[in-house]
Amino acid sequence: MKRLLVVLGAACFVVLLIGAMLDLAPAGIALHAAVSANLPSSGVEHPVTAVLLNFRGYDTLLEIAVLLLALIVILAVGIDSTTDVRPAASPVLQALARLAAPLMIVVAVYLLWAGAFRPGGAFQAGAVLAAAAVLLHLAELLPGWQSPGARLRLGLAGGFLIFLAVGAGLLFQGALLEYPPEQAGWMILLIESGLTVSLGLILAGLFLLLSRDDGDRS
Amino acid sequence: MSLEFVFDLLLALAIIWSAWRSLSASRLDLAIVMFIVFGLLMALAWARLSASDIGLAEAAIGAGLTGALLLDAYGALKRRET
Known about the structure:
Chain A is mainly alpha-helical.
């Protein structure tokens, strides 16, 4: 009886939800026109990249800052390095990882480049880079990170620092992250390149730092 | 009923089905695999909504990285048990 009531309640809720979805009012603010009109001055041809890195660049700046913060917290908390005996990775997996990793790096660079005029961009490229690192780690070709050295730290923070430097450099013009239209293209490419490397390292770091017990042996 | 509508309907049903299976699976490894399937179907749904940027990010981060992280955690749990 009780169960029937719960199921009935849930079903009513689902019907209500679907009903609410069906007569959803149209969006109060339509920004398509504004984005399309300003696209030529944004330095890129793909509207999503234009919004992410030009019109609302500070959102992306804060996103990379939050991700960096998450990684710093992981480093600050510290993970107990209990030695963890893994079964040896199979040679087939290792051979496949060796084949796949260079291709994934090429795909990441392509996604970064494609972001200017079609779907793609720094976040996707960074995720592919991170996936390559994770794959290599799981195939035991790349040891877990013990404690990041100076170069790794620079790589982790580099994207954020480049973004910040460009933002600071443009501040004297009066507004945060307002690129001059002629230089917007290469500035966005510079920021995205930095972001790709940093995001790849940060996302991989969330993985490799947490399983750094493997690094104890190698 | 056009072919596209049938595909969308199947996709929506498959998403709900995989989400349910992922939540209700009794075995942890099965739940993780269903979660990855859910992520990939979700990426397809974003692509159908012509938001391929989000689709790419969902496939790479949602299905790929999170799935790998969950599988690794599952492996660590397994090793700790034995």
